User: Which sequence fits this backbone?
C-alpha cells in the first residue's frame, strides 16, 4: 500500500499555532466541533493528534457570545440585572449577587440582615445545583450514565424551591440591589429543612456510585494534573486551585453577605488531577448543606430590602397614601437611579471559580461599563497545558473536570 | 498586614513609575503611562508579591473629552501571599491605541488582551496570538466601542414596509 499523507487543510488563522509536523502532514488536525455532546456547550477544539496522543489543543470560543456587556450599557441598572442571570446559567443567583454587591458597593447601599441570610441560602442552593449538574454530566461523559439521573433528581428539588421563592426555576433575578425582590413564602423553611435532611445521604449515594469504581478511578487519577504555582500563575481559582492543595476560598478570604458568621471548611485535595477536582466539588456540596442549615437557623426576622428610596422602589401599598413614594416609584421606573461616578471591582466565590464584576459608572442611569470577570474564560486558557501528551479520551474528562459553562466563557 | 504591604507597594510605584493614586470605596487604582505597564507589573509581581492577574479589560469614553484618553485599560492584580488588591490603569488615545503586552509577566493576560483587541481595537505589541476571540475571525469592527451600533432588528411597520422588504428580500411578511 502506498503510504501517502495529504497535508492538512489548516485554516489561515491557526497556522501560527500548529507545529511544523502538522504542516508536513505527520500529525492530524481533528476538529472537536462546536456541536459535540461532551464539550459542555458550544466549544470548538482543534486537536492536533499524533495517532491518539494530543500534540496541541487550540480552543476556539465565541459561539455563545451574545453581547451581554454591550447590551447592559444600553439599559438601566435595574434592567441590566436581568441579563446577569444568563451569563453563567448554571449558578444564576451568583451572577445576580455579584452584580448587586458591586452596585451596593458603588452606591453604598445598606442590605438588611435577613436579606443577607436569604442571599446566602439562595447562593448555596445554586452552587449545589451547579455542582449536581456538573456531577451528572461529567459522570455521563466518562461513561457512568446512572449518576446523571440521580443528580438531576436532587436538582429538581432545588429548582422547585427556587420556583417557590421567585416564581422562576432558573433565571430568578431574585437578588436585587438593596436586598431581595420579596420575602420567602411560609412553606420555604419546611421544604428547605427537609432538603437539608436528605441531601447528605444522597451525596453519599453518589460517592458510592463513583468513587470506588475502578474505571472511574483509572480515568481520573493522575490525569490532567496541574500544580499550585502554575494555577496561580495562570490565574485559576475555584475548585481547580483547591484541588492542588491551596485552601483559597473567597468566602473566607474576602467574606461578603455575612459569610463570616457561618462555620464551614474548605475542602482540598493534593492530587491536582481530575479525581481531586471531583473530590473537592463533592465535599463542597456537603459544606454547602452545612452552610444552608446554619443560615436557616440564624436567619433573623426583619425587612428584606433596603429603605433607601432613591435606589429601591417603595412597596405598592405605600403608593396610595404617600406622595413621596409615588414620586420615587415614578423616577425609578422612568429614569432609573443614578449611582455616583467611580469604578468598583467585586468578586464572589462562584461554583466555577472567582466570579467578578468591574462596574464603572459615569453618573447616568445606564452603566458606563460592566465587565464580568468570568471563571470559565480564565480556566479554559489552561486547557492546552493540561491536554498535551494525553489521549483524546482524556480530553473529555479534563474538560468536564474544569467545569466550564460556555455562557460564562463567551458572555 | 495586607494594608501595609499594599501601602508600601503603592508608595514604591508612585515614586518609581510616576503613578497617580486614586482610592475609591476602599480600592486603590494606580494610573500609569502605557509604556511603563510591563515594568510596573513585573516589579509588582516580583518584589511585592502581586502574583495573580484577576481581570483585565478596557473602557471606551467616546465621545468624551480627549484629554481623558478615549480608551482606558485596567489590570486588576491580586496578591495571593498578602491578600491585597490593586488596579493598574492607563489611558490610550483614539488615534493609535497601542500598548505593550503583559503576557510575559502574567500568562493569563493572553486571552484577556485578545478580547480587548476584539472588542475595542486596542493592539498589544508582541502579543503571541493576536486574533479575535469572541467574534468570528473575519469580522470587521470592534463591537464594544461606543460608536459601534447595538444592532437590533428593526420592526417592520407599514411606513417602512417596502424599504425593509427591499433590503431583505427573503423575509417576506404576510401582506
Assistant:
Amino acid at each position: 500500500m502506498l503510504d501517502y499523507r495529504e497535508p492538512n487543510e489548516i485554516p489561515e488563522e491557526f497556522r501560527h499555532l500548529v507545529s511544523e509536523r502538522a504542516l508536513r502532514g505527520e500529525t492530524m488536525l481533528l476538529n472537536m466541533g462546536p456541536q459535540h455532546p461532551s464539550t459542555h456547550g458550544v466549544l470548538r477544539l482543534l486537536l492536533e493528534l499524533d495517532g491518539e496522543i494530543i500534540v496541541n489543543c487550540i480552543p476556539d470560543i465565541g459561539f455563545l457570545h451574545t453581547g451581554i456587556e454591550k447590551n447592559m450599557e444600553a439599559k438601566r441598572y435595574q434592567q441590566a440585572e436581568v441579563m446577569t442571570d444568563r451569563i453563567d446559567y448554571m449558578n444564576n443567583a451568583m451572577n445576580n449577587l455579584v452584580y448587586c454587591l458591586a452596585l451596593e458597593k458603588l452606591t453604598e447601599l445598606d442590605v438588611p440582615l435577613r436579606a443577607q441570610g436569604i442571599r446566602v441560602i439562595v447562593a448555596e442552593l445554586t452552587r449545589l445545583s451547579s455542582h449536581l449538574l456538573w456531577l451528572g454530566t461529567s459522570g455521563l461523559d466518562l461513561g457512568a450514565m446512572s449518576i446523571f439521573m440521580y443528580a438531576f433528581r436532587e436538582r429538581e428539588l432545588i429548582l422547585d424551591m427556587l420556583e417557590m421563592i421567585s416564581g422562576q426555576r432558573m433565571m430568578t433575578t431574585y437578588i436585587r440591589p438593596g436586598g431581595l425582590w420579596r420575602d420567602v413564602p411560609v412553606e420555604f423553611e419546611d421544604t428547605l429543612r427537609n432538603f437539608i435532611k436528605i441531601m447528605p445521604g444522597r451525596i453519599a449515594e453518589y460517592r458510592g456510585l463513583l468513587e470506588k469504581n475502578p474505571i472511574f478511578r483509572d480515568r481520573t487519577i493522575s490525569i490532567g494534573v496541574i500544580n499550585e504555582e502554575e494555577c496561580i500563575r495562570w490565574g485559576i481559582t475555584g475548585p481547580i486551585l483547591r484541588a492542588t492543595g491551596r485552601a483559597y476560598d473567597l468566602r473566607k478570604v474576602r467574606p461578603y453577605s455575612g459569610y463570616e458568621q457561618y462555620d464551614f471548611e474548605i475542602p482540598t485535595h493534593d492530587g491536582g488531577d481530575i479525581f481531586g477536582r471531583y473530590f473537592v466539588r463533592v465535599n463542597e456540596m456537603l459544606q454547602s448543606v452545612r452552610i444552608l442549615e446554619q443560615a436557616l437557623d440564624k436567619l433573623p426576622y426583619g425587612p428584606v430590602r433596603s429603605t433607601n428610596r432613591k435606589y429601591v422602589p417603595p412597596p405598592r401599598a405605600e403608593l396610595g397614601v404617600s406622595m413621596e413614594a409615588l414620586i420615587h416609584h415614578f423616577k425609578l421606573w422612568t429614569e432609573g437611579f443614578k449611582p455616583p461616578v467611580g469604578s468598583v471591582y467585586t468578586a464572589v466565590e462562584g461554583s466555577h471559580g472567582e466570579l467578578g464584576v468591574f462596574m464603572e459608572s459615569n453618573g447616568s442611569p445606564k452603566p458606563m461599563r460592566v465587565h464580568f470577570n468570568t471563571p470559565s474564560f480564565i480556566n479554559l486558557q489552561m486547557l492546552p497545558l493540561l491536554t498535551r501528551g494525553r489521549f483524546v479520551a482524556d480530553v473529555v474528562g479534563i474538560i468536564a473536570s474544569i467545569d466550564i459553562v460556555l455562557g460564562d466563557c463567551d458572555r | 498586614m495586607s494594608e501595609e504591604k499594599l501601602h508600601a507597594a503603592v508608595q514604591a510605584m508612585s515614586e518609581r513609575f510616576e503613578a497617580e493614586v486614586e482610592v475609591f470605596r476602599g480600592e486603590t487604582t494606580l494610573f500609569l503611562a502605557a509604556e511603563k505597564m510591563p515594568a510596573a507589573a513585573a516589579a509588582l509581581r516580583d518584589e511585592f508579591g502581586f502574583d495573580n492577574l484577576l481581570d483585565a479589560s478596557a473602557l471606551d469614553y467616546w465621545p468624551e473629552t480627549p484629554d481623558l484618553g478615549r480608551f482606558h485599560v485596567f489590570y486588576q492584580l491580586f496578591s495571593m501571599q498578602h491578600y491585597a488588591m490593586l488596579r493598574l490603569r492607563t489611558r490610550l488615545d483614539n488615534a493609535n491605541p497601542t500598548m505593550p503586552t503583559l503576557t510575559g509577566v502574567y500568562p493569563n493576560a493572553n486571552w484577556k488582551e485578545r478580547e480587548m483587541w476584539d472588542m475595542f481595537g486596542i493592539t498589544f505589541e508582541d502579543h503571541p496570538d493576536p486574533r479575535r476571540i469572541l467574534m468570528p475571525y473575519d469580522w470587521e469592527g470592534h463591537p464594544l466601542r461606543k460608536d459601534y451600533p447595538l444592532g437590533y432588528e428593526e420592526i417592520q411597520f407599514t411606513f417602512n414596509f417596502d424599504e425593509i422588504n427591499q433590503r431583505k428580500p427573503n423575509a417576506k411578511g404576510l401582506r
The two ends of chain A are 50 Å apart (CA to CA). Chain A has 18 helices and eight strands. Chain A has two domains: 12-60, 68-307+336-373. The CA atoms of residues 67 and 286 of chain A lie 36 Å apart.
